[in-house]
Amino acid sequence: MSESILDDAQLASRLAIAAGEHLLRLREHGLLPATCLGAHGDRLANTLLTDLLRRHRPDDGLLSEEEAADEARLSRRRVWIVDPLDGTREYAEGRADWAVHVGLVKDGVADVACAVCLPALDQTFSGAAPPALPAALEGPLKILVSRTRAPRIAEQVAQRLGAQLIPMGSAGAKAMAVVRGEAHAYLHAGGQYEWDSCAPVGVALAAGLHASRIDGSPCRYNQTEVFMPDLLICRPELAASLLSTIAECLRHEEFHHV
Known about the structure:
This protein is an alpha/beta fold. 39% of the residues lie in helices and 22% in strands. Helix 1 packs antiparallel against helix 2 (34-56) and helix 5 packs parallel to helix 6.
């Protein structure tokens, strides 16, 4: 690859695809048991991504799930945030709902140079060339949630709005399902980090979706504390209703805990 002559968006997509191809080959070889496949894949993809980013964007900061956070990034205006294998459990189980995230942040905001690769589906989404937002699905709202820890707030929102909760793996896979028009929203609360949402948020915003924290505040990246526990990605016409319902549910919870 000649990454040095690629622009940022091209680099993000090229790296996400390359890491995804390596992960697919590793899984298809079948030489590792499922119990260690995910961890090995994480390390493999992380080495590829971080080595190439440090080689071709040496002046930028870098934050990866698989490495200790380098505090020097906090003084950089440009920072790459990567999740080499988002959905480790799904990857090891042979499922398709896992992803590779490569995102560029400028002054704390996810840039269009964000890419989410879904290797098992042979699909890559770039914030620089997002797909056109399809027409909304008819029928009840479909809200994507975690397979392993669907948040209570999502259950409450679904009950109030008569929505259907759909479990899915990787945050990137869920966000791109909304981009593709396969669901109306993705709602998460209770635990995520910057690398879980950075690239998906960059692509989602570029595609015309709403993306924010569940209190409606913008997603800010390259922070001292990289814990970012909640996220809402949804069709823009649903944002006000969903945020209002979330706020009502949270107030109800606070009242009952007084």
